[in-house]
Fold each of these.
Amino acid sequence: AQKITQTQPGMFVQEKEAVTLDCTYDTSDQSYGLFWYKQPSSGEMIFLIYQGSYDEQNATEGRYSLNFQKARKSANLVISASQLGDSAMYFCAMREGVNQAGTALIFGKGTTLSVSS
Amino acid sequence: NAGVTQTPKFRVLKTGQSMTLLCAQDMNHEYMYWYRQDPGMGLRLIHYSVGEGTTAKGEVPDGYNVSRLKKQNFLLGLESAAPSQTSVYFCASSYQYRVNGNQPQHFGDGTRLSIL
């Protein structure tokens, strides 16, 4: 079974609109972390936002927020007021466990976001 | 602000050739990782290291070897390149893991490797 599921291969949105990118995860650990990364067409991986499993409030970073629903095991990324520069591939990732072996990230397959004017 | 630097950025190899990819980080991170990215597959962990002189296998380690002789460097070797190893390779680094701590991995720009 996939640990990280991103069900939307592609999303289309107009400038200034908000968009939600879906991510569900599967883990039996109590302590884990959830990350979102952006990969523009130039190829680099850019860290956007982090949510810890014990965090009671949803994480926010500027125009990015993470809608964390622990019981549903979902960690959706919300981008407010989309900009043309937001067009990119977005990856949801999880780090699970409390030992050193759990430090690596497990990635979803990604969602391509296209923002039009 | 160098961060994580990967060399080379592009390389074409013939089947059976060997090569080494170099990753260097200047953030004094304890942990380093090698991933590969294939179309439709996301990123998958090849090997990782939690400190100088230590390495461990990830999800897809076959055909690769790694070494971490210095804290700032993490080398990925292909012993005998195969077409199935055609991919984009990413190196990443992070601080030591803390429970519920925000230690994002910082990525290099990737190495695009083609095996003919």
Amino acid sequence: QQQVKQSPQSLIVQKGGISIINCAYENTAFDYFPWYQQFPGKGPALLIAIRPDVSEKKEGRFTISFNKSAKQFSLHIMDSQPGDSATYFCAARGSEKLVFGKGTKLTVNP
Amino acid sequence: NAGVTQTPKFQVLKTGQSMTLQCAQDMNHEYMSWYRQDPGMGLRLIHYSVGAGITDQGEVPNGYNVSRSTTEDFPLRLLSAAPSQTSVYFCASSWTDTNTEAFFGQGTRLTVV
């Protein structure tokens, strides 16, 4: 079963625009929510992460918003750049396992 | 600092053949895991280990075996390859199983014909 649901599957944004990717989860035992970025031919790399006792975390142009009651979290990329074009995965960790969403392919047009 | 090293990078197998995908990390991480990545399916957990001598199954363990005799190495064995195992395989490691960054290898692209 899919424990983390991610949307959209693909996203096209103009340079300078805001990219928003959403994730939802069911398991309330999850206690760590990272986002990973993957470029073609490479392994995923940690982008930013949040714990459920915090509603928002910002690192540069990247922000995670977390809604514990709705069991949802999202990634916002401000001032999106062509170099941000990649596949993004949300994930959730609990019970010794890190489970991933299905990914969002982001394309930022110049 | 090499991080997580996977070998080989590419492999073609015939149905029924067996092989081992190698994974080594030099960060003294306790937790290691194997994922497979298929188009539209994201990353699915195959097996994981919380320390040397301890392994457990993930979401899609059938057809795969693992062992963890040392902290550094976590090989993944395909017992009898099937076309459904055509995928990109990623090994990852982290300090512990909770709340820490997972470092991924570069992946092994496996094709079973």
